[in-house]
Write a structure and sequence with these properties.
binds FE2/S2 (inorganic) cluster; alpha+beta; Rieske Iron-sulfur Protein; elongated; four-stranded antiparallel β-sheet; 2 helices
Length: 220
């Protein structure tokens, strides 16, 4: 059998005493186990984000989806005014940072009548801004405009602003958050009406359900 090349001064196992051979064997076994351990450790470190990426959607779709969230007390919203508030998304996780803070527009019509609008333009989703003197929501992207009740006024949007479902619990204003208030998500809420906003001067609001369309009175 050919002998392996050696570095100058390196001894082969044949030159070692029985104790030296045992020590060399023990060292090789130790280094082998160390290498295996390090590989397992590196593999585990690399696998954590991958596994997290795969299972995070299912973790995010927990019971927090569609939660009712308090966005303020009634007395924080003067009647006749529209104010910007933000709430922490119920599906946000610790590493979402500020992206988990969701803004929305709250319009206090009068008494206990409110509207809560998604900030996203119904065209391509840019954040709309409220101009109190003009009583219009304006979109900076393509010039979309909406009346104070969220109805489409001008520009490329084909419908009004999306509405959050809301209710008053005592003096607290709470909204149904966790889903983007789009036509698709509202339509998926079985039994809940899909509200199509009418222009500000309209005397009624059209309520479309899965089986029927009806009009109900609306007070502005
Ligand atoms: Fe608002 Fe296009 S995104 S008008």
């Amino acid at each position: 059998m050919s002998e392996l090349l050696k570095y100058p001064g390196e001894s082969s196992n044949n030159d070692l005493t029985p104790d030296g051979k045992a020590a060399a064997h023990t060292r090789r076994v130790f280094l082998f186990k160390l290498a295996v351990g390090l590989n397992v450790l590196v593999g585990a470190v690399l696998a954590v984000p991958l596994v997290g990426y795969i299972i995070s959607p299912s973790l995010k779709k927990g019971s927090r989806t569609g939660a009712w969230i308090k966005i303020g007390d009634v007395n924080e919203f003067p009647a006749g005014e529209t104010r910007l508030v933000s709430f922490r998304s119920p599906v946000a996780v610790f590493d979402d940072g500020q992206t988990g803070d969701i803004p929305c527009w709250v319009r206090h019509i009068s008494g206990r009548k409110f509207q809560v609008f998604a900030i996203n333009c119904a065209h391509l989703g840019c954040p709309v801004r409220w101009f109190a003197q003009a009583k219009l929501f304006l979109c900076p992207c393509h010039g979309g405009a909406y009346y104070e009740d969220g109805a489409r006024a001008a520009g490329p949007p084909e419908r009004g602003l999306f509405l959050y479902k809301h209710r008053l619990v005592g003096d607290s204003l709470v909204i149904h958050a966790g889903d983007m208030p789009t036509l698709a998500t509202q339509a998926s809420c079985k039994g809940d009406p899909l509200v199509q906003i009418q222009p500000a001067n309209a005397a009624s609001v059209t309520v479309t359900t899965a089986n029927a369309t009806e009009s109900t009175s609306w007070q502005a």
